[in-house]
Amino acid sequence: MEFISVIAAAVAGFAFGAAWYMALSKQWVAASGIEVDESGQPANQSKTPFILAGVAMLLVAGMMRHTFVMSGIDTLATGLVGGLGVGLFFISPWIMINNAYGDRPFNLTLIDGGYATFGCGVIGAVLGLL
């Protein structure tokens, strides 16, 4: 069951990310400086970022599960709160540091940090549920 919960949580986090970035695509493209074609779609159509994101989601979900088990987090509510905490207080500050040194717009930090926070919340909720 452990592997299934990690895979389910990773899929949920990935799906949430797809919805998050589709909803904020114009703002993210503008803030990130990604080159776009005449239709407004990213010029680089490589699948590599999606593959790496899937692997990253498995790693995050796996480590969150391990941490949750060690901490006794085992309900949907505690998983959600724990996940939000991981995203808001671990991942988002790291994103902010990277973006600050890269002189990236703060709006990019808000978009990516928001995904880290709520995406980890989704992962945590699924882990707590399963």
Account of the protein in words:
With 130 residues, the protein is mainly α. It has five helices and no strands. The longest helix has 26 residues, at 76-101. The chain starts with a helix and ends with a helix.
Helices and strands in order:
Blueprint: H1 2-23, H2 25-32, H3 48-71, H4 76-101, H5 106-129
The percentage helix is over 70%
- DSSP E strands, number: 0
Nearest-angstrom radius of gyration? 15 Å
Number of helices: 5
Oligomer: single chain
Which percent band covers the strand fraction? under 5%
Low-pLDDT segments: none
Give the SSE string. Answer: HHHHH
Can you give keywords for this protein?
130 residues, mainly alpha, 80% helix, globular
Can you give me a brief rundown of this structure?
This protein has 130 residues and is mostly helical. It is 80% helix and 0% strand. The model has no long low-confidence stretch (mean pLDDT 96).
